[in-house]
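We close this part of the discussion by returning to an individual protein. Part of our work consisted of pairing the sequence of a single chain with a tokenised description of its backbone. No coordinates are needed to read the tokens, only the vocabulary itself. The amino acid sequence and the backbone structure tokens for this protein are reproduced below:
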Amino acid sequence: MKAITANRLLDGEVVFWKSGQWVDAFGDAQLFDNDDDAVEAAVATGKGQPTVVVDVYPIDLTPSEGHWAPVSYRERIRALGPTNELTHGKQADGGESIDALRHAAGAARSTGRVDLIRRK
């Protein structure tokens, strides 16, 4: 699955495409099949709104505890908002989609491998 994302020019907030308009919450984003021609059409329409948003592009999604979450860790952070504080950004609004994204982001962080380099 895919979703379309961009940054709103007015305040720089991350927004998501839903049926011809931009919405703030990732949980409200319209989902597209990977091979759906509608993705390209939505991206083209979004890019045709240069006074509203910038950097329009599709993101890949993966299932996470009964919800969809961005595959990329960077996109998970973007979807949650500009901070990891629970009282700031989009996380402060709460909701099931935020809980799913928070879990997915934590899982991505905890399953990564880090190779330590010893200094001599």
